[in-house]
Amino acid sequence: MQDLGRVSLVGAGPGDPDLLTIKALKALSKADVVVYDRLVSDEVLALAPAGAARIYVGKQPAHHPVPQQEINDLLVRLARGGRYVVRLKGGDPFVFGRGSEEAAVLAEHGIPFDVVPGITSAQGCAASARIPLTHRGLAQGLRFVTGHCREDMDLDLDWDGLADPQTTLVVYMGMSNIGQITERLMAAGLLRDTPVLAVNNGTTPRERRVLSTLATLPVTARAARFDGPVLFIIGKVAGLAGSLGATLEEDEIRAASHA
To answer: Is 89 considered catalytic here?
Structure first.
């Protein structure tokens, strides 16, 4: 009888391969199969062994060519075939990555697995832009939210709680709903001139950063014509963007400052 394989749910970080943890790199270097998402960068994927099979199961908003149930079944089937499977996810597997759903299925089927945390996009993008997520006198709390819901349902978030001016709010996957997000936050009391930093393709050579205000963000973000994942950092700390030497797109800064 063939020995049972195992699965590692591995965080690939926000894109820069140098931000992989040592444990993630060790797991990737031993993989028989790499099952990877859309947000895993080519540079990270290139670190897998040349002989490892690579299976793409990426998703985009409103477009899931490989349903989650099929991914779950694939992981179980590969492990039962004696493979060491690295399930590679952008950022951290347990931060908006459905890693917990896959872990539950693996546990249910008796498949050995471990979880290797990764630097989540909020941390990577903030560090790349040289802004803190918390800062004495500016932000004493931090919240991460997803900017879209499954099956394109309306966002049902704690808008009153999210509109706290003493908290940094980081919105993942929010580009398609950024108009609704800004309207709801302002309606809940967050000031129109609250700074917002939008980071596109964070930590990669393709990174772009645009500084705006909450009120002008929908127009500014559309004008930027971002290509790839966008993260929004909302709060007073975003106003520090550029003050510590990180570059910004000057045209967008001027547009925001005159809004």
So the answer is: no
Q: Parallel, antiparallel, or unpaired for β 195-200 and 230-234?
A: antiparallel
Position 251 scores a pLDDT of 40
Last residue within a domain, chosen from 95, 116, 137: 116
Report the C-alpha gap between 174 and 198 in whole angstroms: 10
First to last CA, the chain: 69
Among candidates 227, 206, 44, 46, which has minimal Cα distance to 125? 206
**Residues of the chain predicted below pLDDT 50:** 250-259
Note whether 30 and 77 are same-domain residues: yes
| 137 and 101 both lie in a single domain | no
Active-site hit among 16, 89, 92, 173: 173
| Global pTM value | 0.89
Contacts of residue 195, Cβ cutoff 8 Å, sequence gap at least 6: 211, 212, 213, 234, 235, 236, 237, 238, 239, 241
Do 128 and 242 lie in one domain? The reply is yes
Q: Is 79 helix (H, G, I), strand (E, B) or coil?
A: helix
Give the separation between CA 49 and CA 27, rounded to whole angstroms.
Answer: 11
Annotated catalytic residue 59: yes
Nearest to 89 by CA among 177, 206, 7, 4: 7
CATH number of the domain where residue 132 is located: 3.30.950.10
Which residue type does 137 have?
A: G
Query: pLDDT (tens digit, 9 = 90+) per residue, 3-25?
Result: 899 999 999 999 999 999 999 99
Whether 213 is in a domain gets the answer yes
Q: Which of 59, 164, 186, 236 is catalytic?
A: 59
